[in-house]
């Protein structure tokens, strides 16, 4: 009675120190993120600025705008006294490579994924196990033997040959992911199709396939991008100028330390990066999902 | 269409039989329910009739013709799935017309028939919607329309109402009953809900562990259960079961003895038995011949009446009382039952001791006796 | 008999291309690598068996101790960055960051290096550490009047560890984030109400939930780091003077630069054996029997 109304209990939330203490972990975490992320942002920012600048001060500040660096689009670059093939040849080859890869990978992956998800046949379990082991298998260690095989099949220095190799290297993973999509389609739906008069193959095409379309789309994008980005296989198995792709094109210019012209390099990089950026911006969310969806299952 | 299952056995892992030597005959135009707890093999049985699973042994006949190797699409059946299995990428109309499209029915006729089927389930106004835009009840109607549109000779319903809420369920029950009568189509319904089975089916096949325990009309299942398992499964609240022993034509429970009707039951001196009494058959007060004295353990009000849980011989029995029945917990209660209303089962085999009872299967009840 | 053929026909057609690719570019290469390792095949492509000579050569190779040391450093430190930085990023973006748009933005930025074609990614690092004043680092140093430094030349291992670390960290980030996100919200609420501090929530709620993803990422990255060398090839090419050469890259160089295919295959074989052991461990740990469920249509 005597102290009622007088003693105000201290509410810790009122003190500045308390608020600071509460928010500190968040402030620190934003801080860490900002500091670590900044260099990454800088790198990509530089690509854009450098390609349109005539000269760069301190490596990052542009002096004057120019399109000089983009001349490679209409004239062929002369390098080590020899003229490099046109950028458009390389672009076309990259498109062909990535496109072929996507078609083959998705086609084969969808067929095999469905079979593994839904059909009964002897050896199914073994194939599944092999698929799982292979998708962790370091295929890159087999490059020498692959070279021998390509040579044997007269597919050395052929884009199609490399498409086959790349498809093979990615198909266990792709098939596994697609199998996961098929696993999610309800059996009721497939049974309903059978009862409604479809054959097994027709059910697959008419009923089941439309359900996994979004999944197939993201797998397609993924495989296109990985084809577009491919370097090592093309660098190893492609030698002739007419089969050059953007990756090798850029790498040839980068690898000579005496002749580094960052203006041109950044312009070509940016040009090469366009599809990646476009896909990345538009499909960022679903890509993340496909990425996770594939691996989460392991 | 008449459907016959002869000695059907189905196993998925070569060790245990999901369906074990099943025999079942369904007459033309009949509505049969496969009733049983989950995992008893109902759906497996239905999928075998549909042709999606193939039996390991035995034969399935449609109108006397063996159909074991017939593909589902050639069996002239329609089916409604528990999840409805509507094709999410097609509109309602296309969903319904889909089976006809597979039969290569010309487009005009196809759409007409699909619309007609949609009308039949009162869906005429929703034809252009996608399944995801429909309510559960509407989806169910689409599934039903899709199942009947090709005028199948056999309609299979796999727990069609388990995803609906209570009021919709009663509405759909009436709808299905009406359609089945109107089309006169042989129908098999899977359900774990005994009320659904009782109200809809002409005959019910009660299943347990891959076998049919009793196949009979709903009333016979209720009034004359062939064994303890059926007695326990059919009826809510379930039948009261008390263990006892036959002593010279009388039933002895604890120290009490009760007269038994010799003309109704096989009474064998010394046999251990189970006495069954439906809660509805028990009267309050000692008005009938078989009398009990119990202690009230719980009193539940269910609106139109009350359920008394009474403890007799250490067992808890349930019986009904009027809405206005009042009593203290722990109070004594007297109740009785007519000799004509009781059931008697062999404790060892679970089989009914009723004189008219057919020779039953003994295996069910080893464990089912009193769990 | 007819039904037996029918039962086989569909799976055979659907799996055919998949199996052919796997056979051609996984099985044959593994066997071929095993055989090639015991030959001294060179650019003339002749089969000449030399028994264990390649392996004896490997053990007496003057560079081998340096290469093994590099491999160990590379794998160990990169793995640490992958796992711990990945975990940090995941924690910061999922747990500490309350705004979904922000965390998505940060994760998107961190995904960029992974999506960028390797050639461009390597170029960005080369530019960042360019020894001339055109590089970002030296540009900034010149701002303060400091002389340019050549870090790629003096500390090549540091650069390749950082470059690979960032790429791998985004992999860890994705897996960990999705694992953290799958923890029921209620758990965090309950912990908050109970007054648990951040570190205790991390220790008692988050860490137990990502135990398996953690193991998975560690083993998976270990496996891929052992055998991957694409970024090293692009940034330092193992130089200067083998200072950043790792075993996998050494095998590549031996085969495709010195054309000692036999010797290269022998080194690959060593890697394949190590990788196989890792794969088997991965397989044993993450056994997923339920994913190999049988078909439900006879």
pLDDT averaged residue by residue of chain A:
80
Count of DSSP-assigned helices of chain C: 14
Helical percentage of chain C: over 70%
Assign the CATH topology of the domain at 61-256 in chain C.
Answer: MetI-like fold
Instruction: State mean pLDDT of chain C (0 to 100 scale).
Output: 83
Sketch the major β-sheet of chain A: 2 strands, antiparallel
User: CATH H-level name of the domain at 61-256 in chain C... which superfamily?
Assistant: MetI-like
- Runs of chain A with pLDDT <50, length 5+? 1-6, 290-298
- The helical percent of chain A reads 55-70%
**Structural category of chain A:** mainly alpha
Terminal-residue CA separation of chain A: 67 Å
- The helix/strand order of chain C is HHHHHHHHHHHHHH
How widely separated are the two ends of chain C?
A: 16 Å
Strand content of chain A: under 5%
Query: Under the CATH scheme, which class of the domain at 61-256 in chain C?
Result: Mainly Alpha
Sheet-strand content of chain C, in percent, reads under 5%
CATH evolutionary superfamily of the largest domain in chain A: MetI-like
Give an account of the 3D structure.
The complex is a heterotrimer of chains A (298), B (371) and C (298). With 298 residues, chain A is mainly alpha-helical. Chain A folds into two domains: 12-66, no CATH class; 85-296, MetI-like (MetI-like fold). Chain A has eleven helices and four strands; from the N terminus they run αββββαααααααααα. In chain A, strands 1-2 form a two-stranded antiparallel ribbon. In chain A, α2 (87-118) runs antiparallel to α8 (213-229), α5 (159-184) packs antiparallel against α8 (213-229) and α10 (246-254) packs across α11 (262-296). Chain A is globular, with a radius of gyration of 27 Å. Residues 1-6 and 290-298 of chain A have low confidence and may be disordered. By secondary structure, chain B is α+β, with helices and mostly antiparallel strands. Chain B has two domains: 3-223, P-loop containing nucleotide triphosphate hydrolases (Rossmann fold), CATH 3.40.50.300; 238-368, OB fold (Dihydrolipoamide Acetyltransferase, E2P) (Beta Barrel). Chain B is built from nine helices and 20 strands. In chain B, the strands form four sheets. Chain B has a six-stranded mixed β-sheet with strand order 6-7-8-3-9-10, sandwiched between helices. A five-stranded antiparallel β-sheet of chain B has the order 13-12-11-14-20. A five-stranded antiparallel β-sheet of chain B has the order 15-19-16-17-18, with no helix packed on it. In chain B, β16 (290-301) and β17 form a beta hairpin. Chain B is elongated. Mean pLDDT of chain B is 88; it is low at 359-371. Chain C is mainly α. Chain C has a domain at 61-256: Orthogonal Bundle (MetI-like fold), CATH 1.10.3720. Chain C has helices at residues 2-36, 53-60, 64-96, 100-115, 118-128, 136-143, 151-154, 156-181, 185-193, 198-209, 211-227, 230-235, 247-256, 261-285. The model of chain C is unreliable at 288-292 (pLDDT under 50). Classes of the chains: A mainly alpha (298), B alpha+beta (371), C mainly alpha (298). Chains A and C meet through α1, α2, α3, α4 and α5 of A and α1, α3, α4, α5 and α6 of C.
């Amino acid at each position: 009675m005597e102290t009622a109304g007088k003693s105000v209990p201290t509410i810790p939330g009122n003190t500045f120190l308390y608020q600071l203490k509460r928010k500190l972990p968040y402030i620190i975490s934003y801080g860490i993120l900002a500091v670590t992320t900044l260099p990454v942002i800088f790198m990509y920012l530089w690509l854009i600025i450098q390609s349109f600048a005539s000269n760069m001060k301190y490596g990052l500040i542009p002096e004057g705008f120019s399109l000089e660096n983009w001349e490679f689009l209409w004239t062929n670059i002369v390098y080590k006294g020899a003229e490099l093939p046109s950028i458009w040849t390389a672009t076309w080859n990259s498109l062909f490579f990535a496109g072929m890869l996507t078609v083959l990978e998705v086609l084969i992956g969808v067929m095999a994924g469905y079979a593994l998800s839904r059909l009964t046949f002897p050896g199914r379990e073994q194939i599944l196990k092999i698929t799982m082991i292979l998708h962790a298998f370091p295929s890159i260690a087999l490059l020498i033997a692959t070279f021998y095989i390509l040579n044997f099949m007269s597919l050395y220095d052929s884009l199609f040959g490399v498409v086959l190799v790349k498809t093979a290297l990615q198909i266990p993973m792709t098939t596994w992911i697609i199998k996961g999509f098929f696993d999610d389609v309800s059996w009721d739906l497939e049974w309903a199709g059978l009862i409604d008069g479809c054959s097994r193959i027709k059910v697959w095409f008419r009923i089941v396939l439309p359900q996994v379309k979004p999944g197939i789309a993201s797998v397609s994008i993924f495989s296109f991008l990985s084809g577009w980005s491919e370097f090592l296989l093309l660098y190893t198995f492609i030698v002739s100028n007419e089969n050059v792709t953007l990756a090798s094109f850029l790498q040839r210019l980068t690898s000579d330390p005496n002749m580094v012209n960052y203006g041109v390099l950044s312009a070509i990089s940016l040009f090469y990066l366009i599809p990646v950026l476009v896909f990345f911006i538009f499909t960022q969310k679903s890509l993340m999902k496909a990425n996770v969806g594939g691996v989460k299952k392991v | 269409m008449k459907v016959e299952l002869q000695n059907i056995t189905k196993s998925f892992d070569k060790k245990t039989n999901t369906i074990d030597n099943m025999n079942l005959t369904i007459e033309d135009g009949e509505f049969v329910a496969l009733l049983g707890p989950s995992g008893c093999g109902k759906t497996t049985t239905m999928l075998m009739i549909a042709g999606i699973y193939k039996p390991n042994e035995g034969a399935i006949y449609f109108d006397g013709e063996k159909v074991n190797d017939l593909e589902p699409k050639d069996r002239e059946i329609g089916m409604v799935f528990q999840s409805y299995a509507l094709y999410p990428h097609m509109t309602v109309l296309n969903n319904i017309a889909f089976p006809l499209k597979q039969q290569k029915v010309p487009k005009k006729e196809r759409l007409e028939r699909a619309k007609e089927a949609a009308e039949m389930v009162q869906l005429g106004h929703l034809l252009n919607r996608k399944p995801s835009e429909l309510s559960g009840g509407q989806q169910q109607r689409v599934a039903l329309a899709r199942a009947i549109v090709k005028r199948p000779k056999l309609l299979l319903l796999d727990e069609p109402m388990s995803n609906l809420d209570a009021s919709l369920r009663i509405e759909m029950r009436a709808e299905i009953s009406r359609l089945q009568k109107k089309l006169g189509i042989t129908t098999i319904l899977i359900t774990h809900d005994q009320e659904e089975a009782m109200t809809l089916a002409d005959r019910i096949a009660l299943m347990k562990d891959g076998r049919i325990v009793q196949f009979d009309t709903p009333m016979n299942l209720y009034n004359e259960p062939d064994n303890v398992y059926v007695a326990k499964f059919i009826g809510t609240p379930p039948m009261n079961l008390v263990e006892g022993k036959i002593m010279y034509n009388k039933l002895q429970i604890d120290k009490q003895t009760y007269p038994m009707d010799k003309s109704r039951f096989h009474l064998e001196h010394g046999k251990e038995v189970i006495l069954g009494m439906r809660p509805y058959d028990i009267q309050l007060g000692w008005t009938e011949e078989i009398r009990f004295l119990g202690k009230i353990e719980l009193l539940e009000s269910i609106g139109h009446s009350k359920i008394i849980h009474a403890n007799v011989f250490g067992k808890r029995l349930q019986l009904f009382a009027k809405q206005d029945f009042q009593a203290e917990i722990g109070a004594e209660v007297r109740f009785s039952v007519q000799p004509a209303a009781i059931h008697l089962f062999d404790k060892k085999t679970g089989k009914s001791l009723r004189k008219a009872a057919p020779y039953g299967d003994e295996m069910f009840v080893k464990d089912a006796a009193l769990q | 008999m007819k039904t037996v053929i029918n039962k086989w026909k569909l799976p055979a057609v659907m799996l055919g291309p998949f199996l052919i690719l796997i056979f051609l570019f996984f099985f044959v290469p593994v066997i071929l690598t095993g055989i090639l390792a015991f030959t001294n095949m060179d650019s003339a492509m002749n089969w000449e068996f030399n028994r264990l000579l390649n392996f004896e050569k490997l053990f007496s190779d003057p560079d081998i101790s340096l290469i093994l040391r590099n491999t160990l450093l590379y794998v160990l430190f990169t793995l640490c960055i992958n796992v711990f930085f990945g975990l940090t990023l995941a924690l910061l973006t999922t747990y500490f960051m309350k705004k979904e748009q922000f965390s998505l933005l940060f994760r998107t930025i961190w995904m960029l290096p992974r999506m960028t074609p390797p050639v461009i990614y390597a170029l960005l690092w080369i530019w960042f550490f360019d020894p001339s004043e055109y590089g970002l680092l030296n540009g900034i140093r010149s701002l303060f009047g400091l002389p340019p430094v050549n870090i790629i030349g003096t500390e090549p291992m540091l650069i390749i560890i950082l470059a690979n670390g960032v790429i791998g960290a985004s992999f860890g980030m994705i897996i960990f984030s999705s694992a953290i996100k799958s923890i029921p919200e209620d758990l965090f609420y309950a912990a908050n109400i109970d007054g648990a501090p951040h570190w205790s929530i991390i220790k008692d709620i988050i860490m137990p939930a990502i135990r398996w993803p953690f193991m998975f990422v560690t083993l998976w990255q270990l496996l891929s780091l052992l055998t991957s060398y694409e970024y090293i090839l692009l940034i330092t090419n193992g130089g200067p003077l083998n200072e950043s050469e790792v075993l996998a890259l050494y095998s590549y160089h031996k085969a495709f630069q010195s054309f000692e295919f036999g010797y290269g295959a022998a080194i690959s074989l060593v890697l394949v054996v190590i990788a196989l052991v890792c794969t088997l461990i991965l397989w044993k740990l993450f056994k997923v029997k339920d994913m190999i469920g049988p078909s439900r249509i006879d």
